[in-house]
Amino acid sequence: MKIALDAMGGDNAPHVTVLGARNALKLYADIDKLFLVGDAHALEKEMAECKLTDPRAVITHAPEVVGMDESGAKTLRRKKKSSISIATDMVKSGEADAVVSAGNTGAAVAAATVKLRTLKGVDRAGIASAIPNEHGICQILDAGANPEAKPQHLITYAVMGAVYAKNVLGVDVPRVGLMSNGEEDEKGTTFTKETFALLKHLQSTGRAPFEFVGNVEGHDLFESKLDVVLCDGFTGNIILKSCEATAKAMSKWLKLEFKRSPFRIMGAAIARGAFKAVKKKSSYEYVGGSPLLGVNGVCIIGHGSSSALAIQNAIRVARETVSLKVNPHIEETLAAMHRPSEDEAANA
Amino acid sequence: MKIALDAMGGDNAPHVTVLGARNALKLYADIDKLFLVGDAHALEKEMAECKLTDPRAVITHAPEVVGMDESGAKTLRRKKKSSISIATDMVKSGEADAVVSAGNTGAAVAAATVKLRTLKGVDRAGIASAIPNEHGICQILDAGANPEAKPQHLITYAVMGAVYAKNVLGVDVPRVGLMSNGEEDEKGTTFTKETFALLKHLQSTGRAPFEFVGNVEGHDLFESKLDVVLCDGFTGNIILKSCEATAKAMSKWLKLEFKRSPFRIMGAAIARGAFKAVKKKSSYEYVGGSPLLGVNGVCIIGHGSSSALAIQNAIRVARETVSLKVNPHIEETLAAMHRPSEDEAANA
């Protein structure tokens, strides 16, 4: 398997990208080539410093970078030699099986959708971001690729999220919920109500590759047995950032409170294993990266402030998405849903 | 001052409503009457148990209750003798200055908007929910009254939130942000971009009673000097519930981890003051209730799972909103914004 890493993408690149690449290569024997795409000079230096000598790590020079604060799609058109652009081109040409980027999300999404196009049966791609849930992993879909989604897009997201949950996370019958402002069936906006009706209809045909559990709310993300939570990309992006910000604020306030007395500092030190365990459960470092589902190629999007561990895990997600054939499964599942049933064929 | 409390509203009513009423009466000498609206028999019994003997506590019988799981607006039309309906009628008739309810939010909003109507210059009411922020209180507006808001509604929300921040929270020039999926000016949906342009325009006229700081994201809720975060009621409701759910999940997971070893339990016990302080900072119990801004009367909405402390604080919020004349200030501010300036008057 060959993976193209946007080695210049992210707040802490290229240091953490090179470190993450080194650690991933140590762990994963099935990676044949890991292309580090970016400024060759900077990357050579970083590789020497990080002692990355594995011959599978290959630098592909890209003279430009899309900055984290630049308008992704616009800058992409201007910077044709940027690391994310060239890394995505490598997937398009078949040189690589997947692209991984913790850089500008807008640029990564635009590069993938423009260069790779969408899978057969898919109108719009969506980012599946993992939320740590008591029963496993709950994916928010879409977490930001398609801010003004149409109801039909969410139906495809439901199918793609279910295929991912089944093939990568090992869930037999994935449970899909629709994010709304209340759990009752009649709650929501015109948009969510239309989506709700389409999901109910699909469920009633017996062709949905998932179980639709109805409207869900914030607490369901963490507590309920749920594999996919559907929403438009605007809402999903805001949910994800709000949850992350809450966890960060709680942790910061707790640290400040500990520092108010030597006893509290001691108590916190004694219980530190618990804090580490919760941090591990809730941190995106362990999740790694979010697949951009629906593009014709594998594209994994990392958090802008990814650490080396996050990069390593984003590479793991890319490996899984490729080797477990998520894209072929998505196309097959969508085709099967639209194929006439035996009864329909007989009546035709 | 006279306050009508929906004594049957909330998951733990009437026990916590009566307890909260008793405690509020002990604290606030400026309450002349506190009407406990609900089933007279149940309330008499509860008052005896809670030793609520203050003569300012007066039962107003209401034979019906809108359940927490019922469709608020629909049920309200059917249950004309429900506690929330009668409590709101008392504000309409002038018997009470404010209504406080921790019951079905949909019913409380519908009762207030239908019976009290909106203030002059206000099209739609919005719920201002407080988020604990490092610099004080940040209000999310709207937190759920108006799920499909129009850009113009958010302009009025900005003004109302600013008036509340100025008059109740003591902020000189309130800072207002627009929730979006990124901080850059060009981020957002058609809806947020239109709202952004209207806010920029209002700011440019010099007539905005606030400073518009642009688009904001999840972390700004907790970290940035911000008094009001604008969004439609669908998004606001989801943000609020997601933040609350994250805090709850973190706290639950931490407790589970502490229990894994006696050392951790001991450490957590030694540091317990820190946990209590963060809980106090982040709990809605201390916030109390959220004003429904824009209705012609004071309506304070409490959390469904309000404790006695939350009810007591919701009554405090009602007192402040009445005595600090939030509604007259909103009407004056909106009128002043639309009044021609001296230059315009001279040119007319």
UniProtKB/TrEMBL annotation, chains A, B:
InterPro entries: FA_synthesis (IPR003664), Phospholipid_synth_PlsX-like (IPR012281). The lineage of its organism: Bacteria, Pseudomonadati, Verrucomicrobiota, Verrucomicrobiia, Verrucomicrobiales. Its main location: cytoplasm. GO terms for molecular function: phosphate:acyl-[acyl carrier protein] acyltransferase activity. Its EC number is 2.3.1.274. It catalyses: a fatty acyl-[ACP] + phosphate = an acyl phosphate + holo-[ACP]. Pathway: Lipid metabolism; phospholipid metabolism. One of its GO terms (cellular component) is cytoplasm. This is Phosphate acyltransferase.
